[in-house]
């Protein structure tokens, strides 16, 4: 039984990757029984450590939280004691290039994870080898650009099980007046990959550079990808992302918070143009007169008593220009006198936010100040 060699093949480096041995390695010939655990000297490139493997195995991430080994690197386990001491078990550690957070797929979360690492905001788990795409042993913006190219060259990847996300659809994507918006309620978006159809790359005008964000726009298989990220900023409130053409629709998105957690989102209609805010098409909220010069009355309908109601007014760039709190919360018809004050002439969009328990509802409208 001494010095046997067992090659257990490839072991993909992911969060759930588990090292296991064979039952024979746990057998104690002297006492004719199987031990619950077995100890090994583990060698992985320049790394050496003693590990104890239980019958159900041990996760790779329990041994190391940060990995920096070449792809297909051999991991060797040499048994320390027992009847099969000095026996060797080996694996080939493999991973997907670009999968820095070890979730087995490559998407915007990996970009945010890499950004955090370069800024010394160390992720809980990180694969340096997968992040160093140009293999120069120096992690920097060049690797992030290669990561973006890899992501935008294919379809958007998501986990099979997304039941445990960092938010409950409190990030909203919309197209209003041919402008793509992202709005975050509580969890601020740090990086995102938004996929569009019905538009070509040449027709997209990004609006992120003005706020210190880096934007990358690519087109593949009749789908446009807009990736946005920043080294030191996050998006909060409602932010305009890009100017689009009339036929553009949102297909899907992957949104990351500043800790590289996936944010859930919802799309408020495939395309919301100026006409979608007309009062005639929305009988739950209306303002009159419209257009107006100095004052208008905003009237909205509540199906039940609410805990909190507020008004947010945006200009056509998506910037918040007015917030009014403590609106009427009783069931039925409610009215608010809205004064122009400092606002210049033009089109404005507004949202009535209705909070009832854990439920958040929005009513949208459009006003024109002359």
TrEMBL record:
Keyword Cytoplasm in record = no
The keyword Lyase is annotated on this UniProt entry: no
Pfam families named among the record's database cross-references: Dockerin_1 (PF00404), Por_Secre_tail (PF18962)
Q: Which domain of life is it from?
A: Bacteria
Q: Which residues are in the Secretion system C-terminal sorting domain?
A: 288-360
Q: Which UniProt keywords apply?
A: Signal
Q: What's the protein name?
A: T9SS type A sorting domain-containing protein
Species annotation? Flavobacterium gyeonganense
